[in-house]
Amino acid sequence: MLSGEGVVLHDGSLAQAVRASAAVPGVFSPVEINGRVLADGGMVQNIPVETVLAMDADAVIAVELRLPPGDPALLQTLTGVLTRAVDVMITQNEHRSLALAQAKVSVDMSGFSVSDYSRVKELIQLGYKSAASQSAGLLPYAIQDEAQWQAYLAARDARKHRRPDKIEIVEVTGADSDTDGRLQRRLNKALRGPLNLNKVDTQLTQIAGQGQFDRLGYEGFTQDGVPALRVTTHEKSYGPPFVDLAVNVDGSGVAAFDFSAGARVTFMDVAHGGGEWRNDLLFGSSNLGASEFYQPLGQSPFFVAPYVFASKFARNSFTGLTRVAVFGDERAGGGFDIGYDSGRRSEFRLGYELFDAKLSPLIGSAGLPIISGSTGEFRARYVWDGQDSPAVPSRGTRVVTTLSRVLQSPGQPHPIGQFEVQTSTFAPVSDKTSLFFDIAGGTTFRGSAGPLEVFSLGGPFRLGAYLPYEFLGDHYAYSSLGFRREFYRLPQLVGGRVYWGGWYEAGTAFGTAELNPGPVVVRGTFNLGFIADTIVGPVGLAGSISPTGQSRVNFSIGRVF
């Protein structure tokens, strides 16, 4: 990328070489190898016939991916002109290379674009069909004699490196010495012993998921006669710290609208101890400032996590089914958790939280009560996340359970205990369709919850035909059952799949200080809508109607962190 010259990689890591060759400018980051910044060499030699001839090949069979002619309508913008200019340059160097090949297979790429990674199976079949239809030009290079063919296979097999049965040493390179040492200790503990490539992939996926590296690779080697594994890391060039922007829009018709924007700043491997310092800022209809320091305790799965926060958001107040006010819910405080990380899918935390809170009317009649004071509570929380996506899952189960002991809180005369469980399960029934089932519930046992701890229902996926906080109680139960089906795929650089679906919800919130448990009224909602997985987060739109006639249109754009 610096000199503009073509670079041929003859030795070294095959994984790094392939990664550099696939580094399309503007799409994937370049790769630095031996002091040179390398990217896809398409503009220099997109079909490397010259390179293969220089390797003393007897014959070269080249594959031409034939693109359709340019569309004049795309030349009306500067971007379109520049893109087409690059296409013309690459096409011309392809023609020069193809003229040097002894044979070629031409593949008609009409109907495909450079971002159609998800259509790889169709592309493979197209390649087979194209080669079969042009077999006359390929047959002169076929091996006709069976004995000669077997000898060729044997010679090719002899050149393959044999996979070791076990790994005695794991070496990590690529980052600073502290980071390499920390990862090396972790991987030696996890991978030494019989070689299990699935386990290697799992460990590296977990490390990559922590966000510090943009790529990791591994290769086997022998050190003093001992089988070893070398893991190569590459830290992201733009961090840490990492800055993630967030935009979130939620609405239930014109009656409830929430727009917020902000950022998360994350520092990794703080003080070279493997800690993570996460800082969140959010402004708009909802406001949040929060900071948490997550610190593993040595090489053990235990960790500590002190945190502070300040937030303000709006919550509705109802008399019956009539909204009479909107309150501002302000909280500021902090806490300390001790936890156990049992793997990339689950976590257990035990801690204490203390904060000051204030509930005061923002919109509504004068004279509504203002509630303020301190809240202190012990809390135990367990999370199991087996779903395949945090935004729009297709399979798996997520479970969150929380047990708390609230010692004091405004409007709460006595300490209370609370328990809540939330589950979500997606089960695929075909390549494009999944069924999903949610169930949740909470109880204050025999106590009465204060206004800050009371459970609520209403809003999207919490009885969508009603507004948020429309139903409050010391106890609640909720469930939903539905399906979701893929009907479109966005371009690769814009997002992923688009789904439509339908589901039915039922839920109840009951029990108050005056009536405990009080009457139990179960309400239901029919829902129909769509959701898209985009680069800005999930985008959804759904219409909801209850059997008693309440209806609402809910929409959301983006995801808060």
Describe the structure.
This protein is an alpha+beta fold and 561 residues long. The chain is built from 8 helices and 27 strands. It has helices spanning 14-21, 42-45, 49-54, 78-98, 120-133, 146-158, 177-191, 197-209; strands at residues 31-33, 36-38, 61-66, 103-108, 166-167, 169-173, 193-194, 213-223, 226-235, 242-252, 256-270, 275-284, 287-296, 302-319, 322-343, 346-364, 371-385, 396-408, 416-428, 433-443, 455-457, 471-473, 475-489, 495-510, 523-534, 537-545, 551-557. The strands form 6 sheets. It has a 16-stranded antiparallel barrel with strand order 10-11-12-13-14-15-16-17-18-19-20-23-24-25-26-27. A 3-stranded mixed β-sheet has the order 6-9-8. A two-stranded antiparallel sheet has the order 1-2. It starts with 13 loop residues before the first helix and ends with a strand.
Task: Indicate the topology.
Blueprint: H1 14-21, E1 31-33, E2 36-38, H2 42-45, H3 49-54, E3 61-66, H4 78-98, E4 103-108, H5 120-133, H6 146-158, E5 166-167, E6 169-173, H7 177-191, E7 193-194, H8 197-209, E8 213-223, E9 226-235, E10 242-252, E11 256-270, E12 275-284, E13 287-296, E14 302-319, E15 322-343, E16 346-364, E17 371-385, E18 396-408, E19 416-428, E20 433-443, E21 455-457, E22 471-473, E23 475-489, E24 495-510, E25 523-534, E26 537-545, E27 551-557
Parallel strand pairs: 3-4, 6-9
Antiparallel strand pairs: 1-2, 5-7, 8-9, 10-11, 10-27, 11-12, 12-13, 13-14, 14-15, 15-16, 16-17, 17-18, 18-19, 19-20, 20-23, 21-22, 23-24, 24-25, 25-26, 26-27
